[in-house]
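Supplementary Methods. Inverse-folding protocol.

Structures were first reduced to a discrete structure-token string of length 425. This string, shown here, constituted the complete conditioning input.
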């Protein structure tokens, strides 16, 4: 069932900022999952027909009345207009949040940039039957040396360091969780940690066609992804690559093999050779982890897609019995991809001491051990694997954001939507 989720901040994309970037990602992920999303901000708003945008001018930190109020508050004086501003914001917000299942406020409960808005939220969450409320804390004024001298004892500054009723607290890191617990007295285990993530496709400049292929394969995943950018021909020794993936998966790794090229049109008996390769993958129980892109898609893999795969993969694997040159070694090096290749003259001539070699006649378990050891001991490769597993937005959404919002909604008693989510494509 679809939730109705409100995302509240001072500003929203396309206004530039780290929190705005996160809100944009959250909004798109929620909409992709079939939820109804309302962005509530003083300024900005994503241009996405699936998203509703409500602008409340007094939520903006740059609103003249808010700027004047902050100047007084930073000096330790609560202006006479403060409560009137709070009442005006409450009146504007109440109908906007009335039908929501969950309201998520980003940074508003931790920073003093718009304390009338903070005070208005504190008043609103006391409404009976209101939405479940999440205080999503990226930054905390009371623990920041930047804001020394701008915070003072008493109301409204104490709103930022006291526990609010009916509120679920989220911190973006363990460090922020410890700070939140320190200033409020909340037990650390009462504060959820939901890290910010990265959009791997955008960061790596992945072409939309490549993105569709990767999503169809369920990639990127925990890894490792081994790239073999060659045609399917006997001298490429692809049966060894299949065996290596089988050994890696047998030890618990979610290894994948991507072979980009089609069968060699000049080699005899290629149909039988392809059948043997598929049979080997099936016999080893890794048919679903061996992706023969050109064969599976029925057409040549575009060069742009191959270039993208160099940036997505964890390693280049070249198990060839024979090569005249070995261009993939140079392409992998240009993309800073670890190279694992057969110890044959042409490949050693190119890579020298900067590749990891193995005997092309070696048992797959030996090669798998070599790959596993290097990827486990190389800091960049190890960190890349952890980032992909823990900090890709789809993984964060599936494992942390959606379960949390459903829990908050159920706890509020407000999950009344009867709109079923669209079926997954």
């Amino acid at each position: 069932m679809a939730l109705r989720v409100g995302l509240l901040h001072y500003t929203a994309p396309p206004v530039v900022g780290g929190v705005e970037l996160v809100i944009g990602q959250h909004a798109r992920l929620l909409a992709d999952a079939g939820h109804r999303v309302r962005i509530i901000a003083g300024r900005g708003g994503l241009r996405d027909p699936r998203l509703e945008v409500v602008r409340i001018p007094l939520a903006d930190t740059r609103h003249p009345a808010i700027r004047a109020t902050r100047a007084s508050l930073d000096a330790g004086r609560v202006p006479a207009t403060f409560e009137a501003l709070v009442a005006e914001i409450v009146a504007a917000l109440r109908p906007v949040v009335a039908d929501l299942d969950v309201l998520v406020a980003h940074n508003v409960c931790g920073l003093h940039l718009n304390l009338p808005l903070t005070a208005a939220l504190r008043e609103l969450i006391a409404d009976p039957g209101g939405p479940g409320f999440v205080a999503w804390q990226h930054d905390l004024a009371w623990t920041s040396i930047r804001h020394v001298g701008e915070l003072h004892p008493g109301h409204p500054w104490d709103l930022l360091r006291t526990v609010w009723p009916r509120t679920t607290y989220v911190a973006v890191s363990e460090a922020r969780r410890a700070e939140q617990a320190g200033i409020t007295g909340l037990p650390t285990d009462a504060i959820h940690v939901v890290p910010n993530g990265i959009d791997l496709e955008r960061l790596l400049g992945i072409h939309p066609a490549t993105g569709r292929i990767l999503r169809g394969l369920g990639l990127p995943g925990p890894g490792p992804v081994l790239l073999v950018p060659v045609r399917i021909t006997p001298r490429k020794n692809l049966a060894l690559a299949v065996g290596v993936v089988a050994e890696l998966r047998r030890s618990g790794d979610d290894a994948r093999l991507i072979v980009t090229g089609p069968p060699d049109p000049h080699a005899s008996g290629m149909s039988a050779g392809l059948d043997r390769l598929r049979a080997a993958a099936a016999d080893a129980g890794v048919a679903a982890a061996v992706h023969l892109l050109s064969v599976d898609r029925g057409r040549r893999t575009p060069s742009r897609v191959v270039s993208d795969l160099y940036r997505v993969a964890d390693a280049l694997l070249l198990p060839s019995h024979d090569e005249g040159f070995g261009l993939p070694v140079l392409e992998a090096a240009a993309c800073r991809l670890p190279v694992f290749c057969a110890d044959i003259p042409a490949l050693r001539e190119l890579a020298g001491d900067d590749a990891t070699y193995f005997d092309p006649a070696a048992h797959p378990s030996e090669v798998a051990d070599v790959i596993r050891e290097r990827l486990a001991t190389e800091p960049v490769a190890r960190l890349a694997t952890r980032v992909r597993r823990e900090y890709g937005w789809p993984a964060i959404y599936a494992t942390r954001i959606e379960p949390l919002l459903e829990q908050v909604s159920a706890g509020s008693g407000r999950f009344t939507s009867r709109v079923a989510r669209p079926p997954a494509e």
